[in-house]
Design a protein that fits this description.
41% of the residues lie in helices and 15% in strands. With 182 residues, the protein is of the alpha/beta class.
Length: 182
């Protein structure tokens, strides 16, 4: 199945209903690279603008969650820094976690967006109202996304999605206005 990409008007309509943005980590919040030392240390590079986008969403009352297949202390730390309390690591059945999140947070599939980058994200893509693939996602993942970001994973894709949601909800001008006050 190939998902039809959304027109700008359709994208705005779907983004306007988003109450929950769910993120994969490797390849979405990061560029997909993992640096490991000779011991147990793992390093990941996060984009600060993505982090700011997450903070802006939270300030606007939009919940953000993480569902990832790997388990990393670095991800737990970054989530704490960003105020993300719904962090689900070592998830090999993302759909079960996704369904549990919706139920626990009182959000419907029509109010959820998901950003992913690989074929393991397809089962959630087909269930969410706004499946988003990063620009450098696997081609098969892109086929199931309704929107593909201009930015790559770990290079502003999450911020791009955050701005789309905030603009669709009519909140972006107030955010800019707050920052432009001297």
């Amino acid at each position: 199945m190939r998902a039809k990409k959304l027109t700008p008007a359709e994208l705005k309509k779907r983004a306007r209903t988003v109450k929950l943005l769910i993120l994969d980590v490797d390849g979405v919040l990061t560029d997909g690279g993992i640096i490991m030392d000779g011991g147990d240390k793992e390093y990941k590079k996060f984009n600060v603008r993505d982090g700011h986008g997450i903070k802006l969403l939270a300030k606007a009352g939009i919940q953000v969650a993480i569902i990832t297949g790997r388990d990393s202390a670095v991800v737990a730390r970054r989530a704490r820094e960003l105020g993300i309390t719904e962090v689900h690591q070592r998830c090999h059945d993302k759909v079960s976690v996704y369904k549990g999140l919706l139920e626990r947070l009182g959000v419907t599939e029509n109010e959820a967006a998901y950003i992913g980058d690989d074929i393991v994200d397809i089962p959630v893509f087909v269930r969410t109202a706004l499946p988003i693939a990063v620009s450098d996602a696997h081609e098969d993942a892109k086929r199931y996304a309704l929107y593909v970001t201009k930015s790559a994973g770990g290079r502003g894709a999450v911020r791009e999605a955050a701005e789309i949601i905030l603009k669709a909800k009519g909140l972006w001008d107030a955010i800019i206005g707050a920052y432009s006050q001297v």
